[in-house]
Amino acid sequence: MRAGASTSLAEAAESLTPRVFRAVVYTLEFIERRRTTLDYAFKQALQRVELGGEEVRASYVLARHALLGIGASKYLLQLHNLEKAPLRRRAAFYAALPLVLQAPEGLGRVASARGGLLTNRMLGILRKVSEDSLERTAEGLRAHEALSLKYSIPPLLAHRLVGLLGEKEAVKVARSLYRRFVWIRAATPGRSDELEQYLRARGLKARRDPEVDYLFELDVPEDEPLPEIPPSLGVYQDKASVLVAEVLAEKVEEEGFVVDAAAAPCLKTQLLAALRGGAMILAIDISSRRLASCREF
User: Fold this and answer.
1) Does the reported pTM lie above 0.90?
2) For the sheet containing 215-218, what is the strand order?
């Protein structure tokens, strides 16, 4: 649930076709199944659905807005005992809800484009939902439950935020999460100048971080996919994750031993190896499938 209608979503809805809807569903399904990023999942979806130029942008915008509103989607599915429906069906519901709530003639567009992905029962739920009805629902929930519904924060995290900060401050934190921050670091710290030159040559606005010399904040429009960067030159990684590796590198001796107990997709592991090449690093993760991505490094 986001206040007001989104211009970008409304524009993307005008390009909604069965192919676009399917690409959005595949993206959301991949995220839920693999616990990966929007941009990575979107690339996987595009390998399965052939789209034209405007369809690609529309699919990305719709997938992003579906993620921003996924808290309300999951709440409604749980309310109607559909939280264990097949994942692809749930992903179709995630994709449809923001269109129904915020796009002109959204329900009709969804009904026309859904193909066999969205069930008639789910479409019936969407016919009865509105921004006002969700607001009224949130008013009757406990503070952390309302926070999770309105701002798409995982229930456990919402509970902790409210418990630690109080309701008002937790809402401020939740609202701040809607802003998109894009960080990219040099694949190896010594190539930071080369990365900066590459970014500027591509016309990308990049600000070198004052605390981490090889890290840059990119100014990328919220509803556009991340620019492709050669992996040998730059790696997308948030600043908090980079700082973890930085702190560890300061603590670990040159030939020390480190266990990365939640390694996948091994960005911190790779950076720590670059910072402390002589250290032995054991990378483990609960997901063997996600851990396989570490072999790319």
Assistant:
1) no
2) 206-208, 215-218, 182-186, 234-236
Q: Is 282 in a helix, a strand, or coil?
A: strand
Residues with Cβ within 8 Å of residue 130, at least 6 apart in sequence:
101
What residues pair up with 215 in beta bridges, in sequence order?
185
Burial of 87 (0-12, 13-18, 19+ CB in 10 A): middle
User: Digits of tens for pLDDT over the chain (297 positions)?
Assistant: 444 346 789 999 999 999 999 999 999 999 999 888 999 999 999 999 999 889 999 999 999 999 999 999 999 999 999 999 999 999 999 999 999 999 999 999 999 999 999 999 999 999 999 999 999 999 999 999 999 999 999 999 999 999 999 999 999 999 988 888 999 999 999 999 999 999 999 999 999 999 999 999 999 988 889 999 999 999 999 999 999 999 988 888 777 788 888 888 888 888 988 888 778 888 888 877 777 767 665
| Sequential DSSP letters for 152-200 | ---HHHHHHHHHHH-HHHHHHHHHHTTS--EEEEESSGGGHHHHHHHHH
β partners of residue 258:
281
- Cβ neighbours for 236, distance < 8 A, ≥ 6 positions apart: 39, 182, 183, 184, 226, 229
Nearest to 183 by CA among 202, 207, 161: 207
Residues 6+ apart with CB under 8 A from 11: 58, 61
Helices (H), the chain: 7-13, 18-34, 38-46, 53-68, 70-79, 87-102, 106-113, 120-128, 131-139, 143-151, 155-165, 167-176, 192-201, 239-251, 267-275, 288-291
